[in-house]
Backbone:
């Protein structure tokens, strides 16, 4: 065989994409996904319960009855990692319960299979696999075909699938060096299993039977899992596809399965949770929350957010409660009511009342950021029907997201942070109490204002009392400036984000995006923007900043406590 022919026989390598990692250990009892990946395609997705994770040793529980995703060839039968085509099919874990122990950096995992009825050890199982990686959805590895079975009390090991490993080497899928490493690591594990003291120490990880898990539930709850598509099978509610937000059409092809029509994955109104799905032609991700169209639109006489209304107590200053019509997971979405007064918003409230809203944002954002499966917390407000508000009473929402959205990335350290530097003077609107109000260099709306924190902090919870007062005052002045532009309430969309679990974040800012381009004329996203993700603005940033500087806010009205 010529050198050229030999090269042609090898499969073309797939360019690796950087996947997010989870730096902090999973707490005991966490229900996560163990994913096996071949050439960036999900080959197996197994729900497990974490028993132990200290960064050096990882212990999971696999329960009989658990619904999981297995790779199946188009014509039927199990697909192996070297097969080019497969689909993921929901099936149930049967036979034995398993306790899976993996040490960091090792090319194997040891499974203790136990009888689900008696809890007695049935056998030891050494699974050759890639070193494990902690991910936002759980863990990633890949089965390497080589397996070894050992009797429960030790004895002669039975090696399995050595011929498959040899085939992979012959076909260039696995290198001879990797094959030697896999054999060496498997012998290392078998040597441990020959020692009684070592087996006894391992058995302390076994647990009584647990509740079976459902893969679809965890796909919905955890961060999007690249290439995970459920296609029918027991326990499946249809097909849900999730891929990295930074993917492409090529990444969608690598997922190994086609998404069904949208109607097949939409939750049924009233009893199904919202579902995060990936578009089959673009990198776009969409939460499908069927039934939200039935949420009520308030009038002042029957507003659910006024004191004594359906959602709030009779006496309050600010209020927070779970969203009755959640667009994401129900326990990851809250409504935050700014005031008991139906028409009191940032333009009409005092700085003291605005400070209570800032405190509310900081409190609920920090609480949701501590949840195990949260990667990013988003606080936002839609003012006016044009902006998307369906209830008139001023309120915002907080979302605890299982993934870091593509536009919310970790920022640079303070020494390199552009937000720490002064903005272009032509874009600066005001600087007061340390907070800078400026039009962004590339504004997302005609009259957008970005409020930048005095210090390089990542979240509202890190602000001291003076900095929170400063933000409250800046919010009041900014909204009043926007209203003064065209002498009418400016519909706007406001947002701020924070990281979760103490992960590094960017420089805290709050964006208020005014949506009117001229009196009475809202700026609506056009087809070109929806098709490309590129924004077009009819007002230049410097022009918008000059107009906002000239639109001086009215003097504050002292607060009257009612």
Residues:
């Amino acid at each position: 065989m010529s050198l050229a022919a030999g090269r042609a026989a090898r499969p073309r390598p797939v360019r690796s994409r950087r996947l997010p990692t989870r730096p902090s250990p999973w707490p005991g009892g966490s229900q996560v996904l163990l994913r096996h990946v071949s050439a960036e395609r999900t080959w197996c997705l197994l729900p497990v319960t974490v028993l132990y994770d200290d960064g050096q040793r990882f212990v999971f529980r696999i329960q009989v009855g658990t619904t999981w995703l297995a790779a199946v060839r188009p014509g039927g039968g199990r697909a192996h990692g070297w097969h080019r085509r497969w689909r993921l099919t929901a099936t149930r874990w049967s036979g034995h319960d398993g306790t899976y122990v993996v040490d960091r950096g090792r090319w194997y995992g040891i499974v203790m299979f136990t009888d689900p009825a008696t809890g007695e050890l049935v056998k030891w199982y050494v699974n050759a696999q890639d070193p494990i990686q902690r991910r936002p959805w759980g863990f990633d590895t890949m089965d390497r075909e080589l397996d070894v079975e050992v009797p429960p009390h030790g004895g002669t090991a039975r090696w399995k699938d050595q011929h498959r490993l040899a085939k992979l080497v012959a076909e260039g899928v696995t290198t001879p060096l990797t094959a030697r490493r896999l054999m060496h690591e498997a012998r290392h594990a078998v040597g441990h299993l020959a020692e009684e003291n070592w087996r006894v120490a391992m058995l302390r990880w076994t647990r009584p039977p647990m509740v079976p898990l459902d893969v679809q539930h965890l796909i919905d709850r955890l961060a999007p899992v690249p290439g995970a598509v459920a296609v029918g099978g027991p326990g499946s509610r249809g097909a849900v596809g999730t891929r990295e937000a930074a993917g492409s059409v090529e990444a969608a092809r690598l997922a190994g399965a086609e998404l069904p029509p949208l109607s097949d994955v939409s939750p049924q109104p009233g009893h199904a949770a919202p579902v995060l799905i990936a578009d089959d032609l673009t990198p776009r991700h969409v939460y499908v929350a069927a039934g939200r169209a039935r949420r009520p639109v308030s009038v002042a006489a029957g507003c659910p957010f006024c004191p004594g209304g359906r959602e709030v107590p009779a006496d309050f200053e600010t209020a927070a409660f779970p969203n009755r019509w959640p667009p994401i997971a129900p326990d990851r979405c809250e409504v935050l009511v700014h005031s008991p007064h139906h028409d009191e918003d940032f333009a009409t409230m005092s700085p003291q009342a605005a400070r209570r809203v800032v405190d509310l944002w900081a409190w609920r954002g920090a609480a949701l950021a501590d949840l195990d499966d949260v990667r990013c917390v988003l606080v936002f407000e839609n003012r006016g029907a044009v902006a998307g508000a369906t209830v008139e009473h001023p309120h915002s929402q907080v979302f605890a997201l299982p993934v870091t959205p593509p536009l919310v990335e970790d920022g640079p350290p303070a020494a390199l942070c552009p937000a720490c530097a002064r903005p272009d003077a032509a874009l600066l609107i005001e600087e007061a109490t340390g907070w800078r109000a400026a039009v962004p260099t590339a504004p997302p709306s005609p009259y957008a204002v970005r409020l930048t924190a005095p210090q390089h902090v990542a979240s509202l919870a890190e602000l001291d009392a003076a900095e929170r007062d400063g933000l409250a005052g800046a919010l009041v002045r900014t909204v009043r400036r926007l209203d003064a532009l065209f002498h009418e309430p400016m519909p706007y969309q406001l947002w701020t984000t924070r990281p979760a679990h103490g992960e590094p974040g960017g420089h805290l800012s709050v964006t208020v995006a005014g949506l009117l381009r001229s009196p009475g004329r809202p700026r609506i996203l056009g087809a070109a923007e929806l098709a490309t993700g590129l924004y077009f603005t009819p007002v230049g940033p410097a022009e918008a900043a000059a107009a906002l500087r000239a639109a001086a806010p009215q003097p504050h009205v002292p607060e009257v406590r009612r």
Q: What stands out?
A: The first strand starts at residue 31 and ends at 38. Residues 465-486 form the longest helix (22 residues).
